[in-house]
Amino acid sequence: MFPPSLPENFNAQEWKGIFVQALENVLHQVHPSLIAKEDALEYIESLIISLLGTLCACQPHSVQDVTERVNKTFPDPIDKWANRDANTALEKGKKNSNIVLPVDKIHQALVKDVLGYKIEYNASLYIVAVLEYIAADILKVRVR
Predict the structure, then answer these.
(1) Which residue blocks in 8-62 are alpha helix, DSSP H?
(2) Virtual CA dihedral for 14, 90, 3, 46, nearest 10 degrees?
(3) Residue 126 CB partners (closer than 8 Å, separation 6+)
(4) For the chain, which residues make up each domain, given as ranges?
(5) Cβ(59)–Cβ(8) under 8 Å?
C-alpha cells in the first residue's frame, strides 16, 4: 500500500505550514499542559500531509469513498476508531464538532489544487476529522 499513488496535482510543499498551529491546538486538547517544539510539530505535519495525499489518491467524491480508503489504509482497529471519530464530526457538523484543523482551507485546496473537481463538503470534513484523529493519536503516543 505504501508509498501511495498520490494525485497528480498533489504538491506536499504547498501544504507546509497549514497544519502547525492547528496541531498545537490538537496537542492542547490531548495534553493541556504540554508544549511541543516547532520541529516536532512540523514533523507531525509532514506525516499528516502524506496521509492527506494517501486519502486523496482514490480520487474521492463522497464520504463513502473516503471511508473505504480509510478502511484500506489503516489496520484494524485504527480504521474503525478513525471512522467513528469522523462520523461523529459529521453528525455534529463543522460548527458543533471540536475539529481544530482548518476544514474550509483544506476543502478549498482539495477542490482547486489537488483533485480539480468538486468534492462534497462533508467528504472534506470527514478527511479532516480522520487527519485530526491520527494527529491526536500520534501526540498521545509520543507523550506516553
Answers:
(1) 12-15, 20-30, 38-56
(2) 40
(3) 63, 66, 67, 86, 87, 89, 90
(4) 12-143
(5) no
Q: pLDDT for 2-36, tens place per residue?
A: 445 556 667 777 888 889 999 999 999 988 888 88
Residue type, 100: V
**Which superfamily is assigned to 12-143 in CATH?**
Histone, subunit A (1.10.20.10)
pLDDT in tens, 99-129: 999 999 999 988 888 888 899 999 999 999 9
Q: Where are the alpha helices (DSSP H) in 32-120?
A: 38-56, 63-73, 78-96, 103-109
At residue 6, the pLDDT reads 58
Contacts of 41 (CB under 8 A, 6+ apart): 20, 23, 24, 27
Grid-cell match 459529521, residue found: 90
Q: Which residue has the cell 508544549?
A: 35
Whether this prediction's pTM lies above 0.90 is answered by no
**Cα→Cα distances 137→8, 27, 29, 62, 78, Å:** 29, 10, 11, 25, 10
